[in-house]
Amino acid sequence: DAKTTQPPSMDCAEGRAANLPCNHSTISGNEYVYWYRQIHSQGPQYIIHGLKNNETNEMASLIITEDRKSSTLILPHATLRDTAVYYCIVRVSNFGNEKLTFGTGTRLTIIP
Amino acid sequence: EAQVTQNPRYLITVTGKKLTVTCSQNMNHEYMSWYRQDPGLGLRQIYYSMNVEVTDKGDVPEGYKVSRKEKRNFPLILESPSPNQTSLYFCASKVQTDTEAFFGQGTRLTVV
């Protein structure tokens, strides 16, 4: 199973872009990168996922390096409501069990 | 509104008193799963179900039971709760591989 490494915490000024890095140097070719976030002990919320191309949706953009060993989640205009713990996950599939292995994530604090 | 509903949200119980935490989803998802979240350990999978009457153990199944008699419901049963099962529990559902998982709002269980 590919493991991920994220900084434990980051701050970002409100209105600025928040760039959250993730290292997954042992990722294999058919594993996707997923990002979830958890706001204040609520249920985790899906943000975005990708395989090798950059992805964008209404919440965020995901930039995956060409060698796929790292990625960056970008929140283009951070608001106070984006304060949360962000998890970078490489999908583990074990005979149909789509288990999500959450690490300790990055605690992002948006500063007014 | 698409959602995963857990009940109760908060529960304090005594050691050995059987309890059930319910989970229901309204999205017709085949796949459902239970996680527990503890400080410093992230989310760990307890049990999962690929469809009705199909369940299997996750990483930390000891002390828990589940059932999947209907597609929408996936209750978590603690036959004889112990204090080390004090935790924050999340139910999740999804429809197929490579799509987002939807999480419930969580059940904070305290066993004294």
Note the run of SSEs of chain A as H and E.
EEEEEEEEE
Q: Give the oligomer, counting copies of the same chain as homo and different chains as hetero.
A: heterodimer
Number of strands of chain A: 9
Residue share in helix of chain B: under 10%
Rounded mean pLDDT of chain B is 94
Strand content of chain A: 35-45%
Q: Summarize the helix and strand pattern of chain B as letters.
A: EEEEEEEEEEE
Secondary structure tally: strands of chain B = 11
Distance between the termini of chain B: 36 Å
Number of helices of chain A: 0
Mean pLDDT of chain A: 91
Strand content of chain B: over 45%
Helix content of chain A: under 10%
Largest sheet of chain A: 5 strands, mixed
Shape of chain A: globular
Q: Biggest sheet of chain B, in brief?
A: 7 strands, mixed
Runs of chain A in which pLDDT lies below 50 for 5 or more consecutive residues are: none
Distance between the termini of chain A: 38 Å
Architecture overview:
The complex is a heterodimer of chains A (112) and B (112). Chain A has 112 residues and is mainly beta. Chain A has strands at 9-13, 18-23, 33-38, 45-50, 55-56, 61-64, 70-75, 84-90, 106-111. Helix content of chain A is 0%, strand content 43%. Chain A has a five-stranded mixed beta sheet, with no helix packed on it. Chain A is globular and about 40 Å long. The termini of chain A are far apart. By secondary structure, chain B is an all-beta fold. Chain B is 0% helix and 51% strand. In chain B, strands 2, 4, 5, 6, 9, 10 and 11 form a seven-stranded mixed beta sheet that branches. A four-stranded antiparallel beta sheet of chain B has the order 1-3-8-7, with no helix packed on it. In chain B, β9 and β10 (102-103) form a beta hairpin. In chain B, 37% of the residues are buried. The model of chain B has no long low-confidence stretch (mean pLDDT 94). Classes of the chains: A mainly beta (112), B mainly beta (112). At the A-B interface, β4 of A face β4, β5, β9 and β10 of B.
